Every structure is written in structure tokens, then in C-alpha cells.
Structure of Chorismate mutase:
Amino acid sequence: MAEKKTAPSPSPSQDLTLGKVRDALIRQEDSIVFALIERAKFPLNAPVYDPSFFPQFGGRSLAEAYASEAEALQAKVGRYQNPEEVPFFPDDLSVPSIIPYNFPQVFHPASASVNVNDAIWSMYFNELLPLITVKGDDGNYASTAAADLMCLQALSRRIHYGKFVAEVKFRDAPQDYTKAIQAKDTDTLMKMLTFATVEEMVKRRVKKKAMVFSRNVTLEDKNCDVEVECKVDPSVVSRLYEQWVMPLTKDVEVQYLLRRLD
Amino acid sequence: MAEKKTAPSPSPSQDLTLGKVRDALIRQEDSIVFALIERAKFPLNAPVYDPSFFPQFGGRSLAEAYASEAEALQAKVGRYQNPEEVPFFPDDLSVPSIIPYNFPQVFHPASASVNVNDAIWSMYFNELLPLITVKGDDGNYASTAAADLMCLQALSRRIHYGKFVAEVKFRDAPQDYTKAIQAKDTDTLMKMLTFATVEEMVKRRVKKKAMVFSRNVTLEDKNCDVEVECKVDPSVVSRLYEQWVMPLTKDVEVQYLLRRLD
């Protein structure tokens, strides 16, 4: 039997350090890029997003109807017992039918419910999707909706990891944050959570990941640091992080911290 | 707005040539490797596969219960209207609730129903899964079952593409195949469909894809032709193709051809 090369990184909730949280964030970049590449296999498939196209979904688009029902099914088998997972349709969820797993609860109770999925949903469909798909309709509506949900869930998990970032940063220096939290000073908190050089590096890394993962791999090519035919435009992935993923993550962090002393 | 670099390849069913079918097969290698990497994020999570662990699923494992219900949901939004998609639980499917999309029907009617999903299911859980996961239980049962289904669907789509391969090869040289089909000469058909040098190249390419896509991409590294820490063992992916994907694809091709004159 072949040896496994690397063990999956443990969830940071089991051992909360900034290093663990960063490793998880870096790993999640891969999942986001994979999901975008898989969505870009299909053209836009506009009927999936038109609530009037399939009247049987009661005013919802196929994408909404599918995501809501898929989340309900995943809730039934326990997905949202893990505090890392945040649903898009929390009102439609089934009660889990399985014995709860004992996930470590590391979030401050008043902060745990921070949820920016509405903003993620709107950003994904209105801004991102037209940038990663070509126009057209190939009829693969179910696969398209499933690929959209993979992207949304990967983005949501990444952005809500801001809760771990905020918790670990608060624990490391509670005195530094307390004054700004008590003053509800959002601007100062945002400044404390912003590291321009780190953000620049993340943007460059995700762009490179898009380049490496979305290339047409052949037996001949050796250098993966050149931009060849890409299934997803690397500069779009960089822009996704700059304009949406990192700002929304910081929104999560600020919202989390503002409730951290409640 | 950024330019899209490459348009998705049209489905071969819209323009059936061996070149188109091969392009689709090559693109699907990426999907399979991505899915395996995403599954390997989680440890084995054995309770997902134990029918006695969650008695509420009526004798099914969580993996079976999830896959069956997820397929039913996807069927409702039209997944199996596309002849490229083959369900694992055909008896549990919902009737599609959407207007049928007019997918081109290119398969010979008597051959269209070839389905080796039982063999794929058994290979995936009994052989492959222990090779790509580490032992352990992190409680992410729902995400694990969802990741398993992504792998299974990617493998099933790839293997059942053998129907396209068989149809296009038959159309290109009906006289060559007819005698063997009429004699039900499975051995001769298998020989006619086997190209050792092509298979060797495919094995090397999927190994390289596993190396490229499962590496920890950093801003520094440039050469992607060296095996560094991999999230999925490249030699396992090569073995997956050698031992299971390519033989099962040829089984599909032979079964398809055996009914091609009915």
C-alpha cells in the first residue's frame, strides 16, 4: 500500500494558534481555486439564476432551490454541527438526524453567530460568476447548481474563518482590543486587523495557484510559473481575494470582536 | 472585465469525434484529481461507512443514505437528463421537475443503459479510499460523504465516457467491429480497444497532474515537475487509472459494443 504523503491538517478549533489558522486558510485557497475551475467547465447557464424560468420553485431560482435543499440534506447528516460551517439558508435546515459529534466550541458565544453569507451570495452571483464563465447554455443545470454550491461553501468557510482569526488575535492581546471594542471603534479595529504586506502576498499566491491548478498539464511542461492557457483567469482569482474575500473576512473579524465582550 | 482564457469544451455529444472525446477525457482527469485531493482533506471517518453506526438510515451507511438522497435532489433538477451522467441509486431517483433540455442522444438505444456504477462504488470504498486517506475521525461526516460523492461522480462520468469512445470507434469502422460483436467475442473486442502506449501515457499524465495539483504551492517554487509534499500520492492516482479506471472504461466499451447491433 502506498504511503500517504501528508496528513490533513487538524482543524484549528482543536488547537487554536495563529499558525494553525493560517495553515487552514492557505489550504482553503486550493479548495476555492478547484471549485472555481470546476464551475468554469460549464458556461453561465443563465436559466439556473432566473426565478421565472422554473416556476415550480415557488419564486426561487433553480440555484436557490438546489442550494437550500442540498443544505437541508447536509444538515440532516450533521454538517452544521461543525462551527466552521455556516449555512446560506438557515431557516430551511433539517434537524440533524445523527448523534452530535463533540466539536470543540472555541468561539465566544455572543460572537459565534456572525454570518455574512448574504453578502457572499450576492457577490458570487452578481460579480464573480460573470468573470469566470463564458456566455452560453449547455443544459447542465443540476451540475451547474452543484458546482455553484461548492464555490459558495468554500468561500463561506474561508471568509467565516475570520472568527478563528479574531478569536486567536483577541486571546493573544486582549488589552489591545478591549478599548476599541468598548468604544465600538470599527475603524481602529479594521486597522488593527489589516496587514498590507500579508494581503499582497496572499493575492500573489492565489493568483499563482490559479495558474498552477488551471493549466492544461502535459507530460512535457516543467515550469509552472508561467501563465499558459488557464481554465480560470488568475487575475480574477487575485481580484476575488482583494475585493471580496479579504474585505469580507475582515468584516467577519470586526463583527466578531464587537461582540467579544458581550 | 478580465478576459476568459479558454472556453469550456463542448460536450462531445454535440459533435462526436474521437478528438473531442479525448479532450473531454483529459479534462475529466483534472476533476478526478481535484475531487481526490478534496476528499483527502478529511481522515477516513469510518463511521460514515458503517451501516450499524447510524441506525436511522435503515440499514444503509451514512455515505449510502447521503449519496442516494443527493442523487434524488440532483435528479429533480435534471442531472440525469444528460446521458453523460449515470446514477448510483437509479431506483431512488425523483422525477425531474424541470423542462427537459434537449441533450443530443448519440448512443445506440440498446447500449445506452450500460452501468458499471456498482463496480465503481465497490472499488472506491474498498480499494481506493484507504489509499488516499489517513486513519482517524474528525467528525466531518457530512462533508466527507459530500466529498465521496464528488469523487464517485467524477469517476463514474469518466468511466461511462467509454460509451462515447465505443460509439465513435464503431462509427469510424463498423465493419471491423461487426464480426466480433456478432460472435460475442469479448477478447477480440478488448484487444481492439487496447492501446498500451496510450494507456502508459495516460498513467504518466494523471500522475503528473496529482503532483502538480496536490503540491503546496508557494511563491518561490517554479518547477512543478518534481514531487514535493503531495496531498494525494501521485502513484496512487496512476494506479487508480491502471487498475480500475482504464479497465472499467474498457468494460463499458465492450458491453456497449456487444449491444451495438441489437
Remarks:
- DSSP finds nine helices and no strands in chain B.
- Residues 1-7 of chain B have pLDDT under 50 and may be disordered.
